[in-house]
Sequence to fold (644 residues):
Amino acid sequence: MFNFDKSKYKGICVPYARFSTDVQDEIGRKSLERQIEEAKRFSNEYGLFFDEDIAFVDRGVSGFALSGDTAKTFQKGQMQLMLELLEEIDVAEREFIYITFHNFDRFSRMSPDVASRYFEQILDKGFNIVTTIDNEVYKRNSGNLEQMIISIIHMSTAYYESEVKSIYISDSRQRKRDVIEYLYNDETQKGKHRHVGIKACCPRWIKTKDIIYEYVGKDGSVKKEALKRFEIDEERAQIINYIFDLKIQGMGNGKICQVLNEQNIPVFHSGNYTKAKYWNLSTISNYLKNENVIGHSYLYHKAKEEVFNEKTQTFSTKRVRKIATDKLYNYYPPIMSEEKFNQAKEAVKANSVKVDRSKASEKPHMFSNLMRCSCGTRLHYKLTKKNNVKKVDDYFEYLKCERSALNDGCTGENINYKSFEAQFINFIRYIDVNEILDHANGVEGETQGLTELEEREAAINLKITGLTKTYQGLINAGVDGSDVLVELEKAKGELQEVEFEKSKLLNSMKSQTSSSSESIKQKKSALKSKVFAEKVEARKAVNELLKQKIRWMEVYATAYAKFVIVCFVDNVIRTYAYQDEFATDLMFNTIKINTDGLKGYESDELMVLMIKTVRESLAGMNEVITNTDLKIKLAAIKSEYMNK
Fold:
């Protein structure tokens, strides 16, 4: 992709262009052409190979939209794709790659210190960066420290410009919300206004029309405001009413989904909403409790909150949705009566299980928040009380993939829970789970590791102190200290890595307990109790123990294969068939995956690749026939991953 004739060109130009919004794209359609033409002009002047087919363009991605401290530009879209592709280029060839940005607001509108860190990382990897607005070329160890400082100032300007714009937009939205609050909830205005407002996130059955709305302000003067008139989409409103009718008839949400899907009733799509193919449980549940159907609503706003990440031991900022107004009555035109809405609410209550299913501790099965269907979807647990004359609690229990229940592409079958649990207990009999935890904890090894990290940290801090003094001395003497500055920044980067590893290790050691919980084997008798409440308590205890020890667990439950893949914290992938008629030699495996030398995220990536291969092999999706075939295939995949 990045090949060119070195006898004709000094290097290759890789242009990057970005539009912040669709409106900007429409109004200034020449913007993209201008950015690409500037890259082309620079290429011609500098003797670079230029090919428009390898230009990277992001539309609708704002450089200022942050997640924590990282701009979305760097997390998704063409920017992310470009960086990933560049990573594949041989180190020796990177000096010929020139990444062009029109200016630094195209590079990033994140905070200046974070932006400069990304800037330096790209340069440190051996690539060149060009800003076509001033024809400035940045290279690793080029020594143009002064120009880099100017560039960081440019970044600051772009960052604060976007921050000011963000404040203006936020203030504008708040003013609109204040107007709506006044129209619907001020004592002098209540009942005078209905079915007008701001678009925000309208219900799917509501259409909007732009209007200029007149009202009397608090000072008695006539005001005009650009608002939306809300109107009913009759076809969609009819579908929502049908959903409520089915619920009032006593149908569960899953059955309602099945009816809608079988009748090919289309799922609502609009704006940037996810385009689902089928009706799902969460959609039905949300509609049934949404007062928008009877016209009432709230307005919301996004507020920034600072949160502390225990895993990385760092603070980050996230945006949370909060209610911004009192309830707005008759905000939307109602599509049903309050009586019908309340009838559906009562039907929901009647169908509800008494325990709170949102709490893992209240879910009466052993694999809650632990095991998923092999398609990646949550398993739904169902129990129905048996009608028998015995004075004991006895239930039919089964697990079912939610996607399969909705005929949404998964062919997973119902899993008899009691039989499945018994097979798992039988499987676990041959594994010393407590030893796995102790092995994973490796307390002695971790203590030694912490000592080594602290020694490295002290050495790097000493190095940073020395380099800082050297750099200051050179600057005071009027001597170029750019080489020292490069070494200083490199040392600071090393220090950050050591501090991160140290925090992870400390958290790991903190979470260890001196003794493991009661073993699963000791709970075996309680799991067979005839008193259902005792059985549930035993399942909860086992669930808590398993969550400490299992990294991954999935079940494959089609008509052709029924097996479980489980990976404990010891990085061993274990598999077994949970029904005897599907048991073959290939179904039973114990495969140790060595991840020594890999970073945390690399280890996770490798494990996911390995588990995917195991799943496909046991399901008959590839050429693997024997356990030996499987091990050979996994070894090849690991080798390919390590060498990429």
Remarks:
- Residues 360-386+397-433+534-643 form one domain.
- The chain has three domains: 11-165, 186-295+330-351, 360-386+397-433+534-643.
- The longest strand covers residues 206-216.
